[in-house]
Amino acid sequence: IEKLVSTVEVPKMSDTSEVVTVNRGDTVSWRLNYNNTGTHFVDDMTIRDELPKGLDIVPGSMLLTTAAGNETLPDTALNSGGVNVGDYTPQGNGVIRFSTVVNTDPEVCKLTNWAFARSNNVKEVKDDAMIIIRDCKIEEPIYVCTDLIAVLSEGNTYKFTVEAIAENGAT
Q: pTM here?
């Protein structure tokens, strides 16, 4: 399986990559390419893609394309157990396309979306694609020195007293 992402509504291969940068609220298109690269028949190929929190499926956008034609899939088809896309001869393949809206919390700066493929006679394989969220609000660690006192104790030796504030994970 090959998982790709794009900011183009119906991406062709030239429009896709493994990483895109978007803003919250943007629509992102996904392309799952699957191919029987082996020399044996593949029985009951199942494709699964459980969306991470912060990605909402665009209703009615899920489309399966195979040699038999196009089929609109239910919005929940890739969740949980996935969708059985059938049997494939060697070099048989298909594509699932769908769109999501980026609806993350402000502090989320990236999402990784995994796709999985398996069949009765082939172990599960996976691939991922990532979204970088441009308008995220990272809470940077904050270090503030509120008081610094230096006292000459003997010769060239000083005693320092420091008071500081550490917030947002700073230690």
A: 0.77
Strands 19-22 and 122-133: parallel
Q: Is the pLDDT reported for residue 27 higher than 70? A: yes
Q: What does R_g of the chain's alpha carbons equal in angstroms? A: 25
For residue 23, give Cα distances in angstroms to 20, 28, 80, 131: 10, 10, 27, 9
Q: Are 102 and 26 in contact (CB under 8 A)?
A: yes
* Token output for 27: 């629509």
pLDDT in tens, 39-80: 999 999 999 998 999 999 999 999 999 999 999 999 999 987
| Residue of 57, 8, 25 lying closest to 17 (CA atoms) | 8
DSSP designation for 50: -
Amino acid symbol at 104: T
Q: How far is CA 41 from CA 2, 66, 122, 129, 168, in A?
A: 19, 16, 10, 28, 54
What contacts 26, CB < 8 A, 6 or more positions away? 7, 101, 102
Are 6 and 28 in contact by the 8 Å Cβ rule? The answer is yes
Q: Is the CB of residue 23 less than 8 Å from the CB of residue 109?
A: no
Kind of pairing, strands 2-6 and 55-57?
unpaired
